[in-house]
Amino acid sequence: MTSFIYGLLLYFFLMIPPVANLVESIMITHMHMQMPFLVIAGFLMGKLFQQRFPLFFKKWNSNGIPGITLFLIIIIYWTIPRTMDEALTVQSVEAFKFLSLPFLAGIPLRDSWSKLSSLGRNMVIVIFMIKYFGMGALYIWWPSQLCNNYLLIDQLTLGWGFITTALCLLFYFIYLFMIDPSDYE
Amino acid sequence: MISVLKNRHTTISLIVVILFGFVLFYIGTDGFKAFTAETARLKELKEEKPVFPQVTMEDSKGRTYSLSEFENKYVLITFLYTSCGTVCPQLEKNMAELYERLPQYVGKEIVFLSISFDPTRDDPDRLETYRKAFGSDGDTWRMARIVDKDELDLLLERFGVIVIPDGNGNFTHNSAFYLVDKTGRLSEVMDYTRIEEAADTIATLIESEKGNKK
């Protein structure tokens, strides 16, 4: 229950108009701060849903694959340049962002991650790594503006943000394969 | 048996999720066509064909007029500001190349017009310097500003030109060749980096109109 309340508080906090306006005014905080926090809010709230509807999750997401697929779809959708622009200019798109990221990405992630095998988890990380390198390259080397509502310099910053995130994932992988935790126990 | 049943449900939900994703992406990108707001904007403009509003322009020679000055001619328009160091010089250079590709029509069937969205700095003197730098003759290719802020905003909004000041006197803005037809409606929005394609489109339009008249 506590985690649900924290999640809900975070969710409401992100919805406060000045907070939303501030993080949305900069491209990189829009994508790499507000959006992940919305997912985290859903992740935290997810536990209560799991407790309330255990059968639903067990029945429809028994191996975690449908849930993680939904998570991937929603996350990829919100990295399309156009969706970011329209979240700023079209009210219904903004509403969809606040609904989809916590409830269609955060909750499924919580329910699915523990059900996935380590191979499945690694695959998800690899998908993100490739995607982030790709998006980073796109935002950095694309000659013109991808988003009408942001400056070119914002686009470059976001591109490097993607590359940095992808590098972190890569380092995690190197760590995973190079180091055997039992050596240190 | 139970495990098969379980898996069946999961398979169903996986299919539902994938279908949902497909529909979501389909709607979100206008059927996988517009991945940026800019492509979506161009698509919309081509369908809407907005009318060039009634605005007063002041050109580099200090003359003032509205679009009716160019009655019965096509007008090729670009939007710029002269302090711009990045896209605008490229845009105007390409416009000059396009101008040179259409010698048989320029002045008679079509005029070129560069409109500044920074009227405070781009006064006629400054526009005159800029005009010379790009070899425009000031008549069949004019450079003008729109002094009235409301009129300027109306035009930018209607033609979907988004201009964001960065606070240091520069602007980030989207660029294109805008072709306004003889009735004052926006007829084409063309990629300013594809000069040959733009020249072909314009020539085809003018020729087909000539053909209709005969």
Structure write-up:
Helix content of chain A is 82%, strand content 0%. Chain A is mostly helical and 185 residues long. Chain A has one domain (2-184). In chain A, helix 8 runs antiparallel to helix 9. The mean pLDDT of chain A is 91. Chain B is of the alpha+beta class and 214 residues long. Chain B folds into two domains: 2-33; 46-213, Glutaredoxin, CATH 3.40.30.10. Chain B has six helices and nine strands; from the N terminus they run ααβββαβαβαββββα. Chain B has helices at residues 2-28, 37-48, 87-101, 124-133, 149-158, 195-213; strands at residues 57-59, 64-65, 74-80, 110-116, 141-146, 163-165, 171-173, 177-180, 186-190. Chain B has a seven-stranded mixed sheet with strand order 2-1-5-4-3-8-9. Chain B has a two-stranded antiparallel sheet with strand order 6-7. In chain B, helix 3 packs across helix 6 (195-213). The termini of chain B are far apart.
Radius of gyration of chain A: 18 Å
Largest sheet of chain B: 7 strands, mixed
- Multimerization state: heterodimer
Please, how many helices of chain A? 9
What name goes with the CATH superfamily of the largest domain in chain B?
A: Glutaredoxin
Q: Tell me what portion of residues of chain A adopts beta-strand conformation.
A: under 5%
> What is the rounded distance between the termini of chain B?
79 Å
The biggest sheet of chain A, with number of strands, parallel, antiparallel or mixed sense and barrel status, is: none
Measure the end-to-end span of chain A.
34 Å
What letter string, H or E per element, gives the SSE order of chain A? HHHHHHHHH
User: Which pair of protein chains has the largest interface, and what are the residue counts?
Assistant: A-B, 28 and 32 residues
Q: How many domains, in number, for the residues of chain A?
A: 1
Measured by DSSP, the beta-strand proportion of chain B falls in 15-25%
Basic shape of chain A = globular
Shape of chain B: globular
The CATH topology name of the largest domain in chain B reads Glutaredoxin
Number of helices of chain B: 6
Q: Return residue spans of chain A where pLDDT drops below 50 for at least 5 consecutive residues.
A: none
Order of helices and strands of chain B: HHEEEHEHEHEEEEH
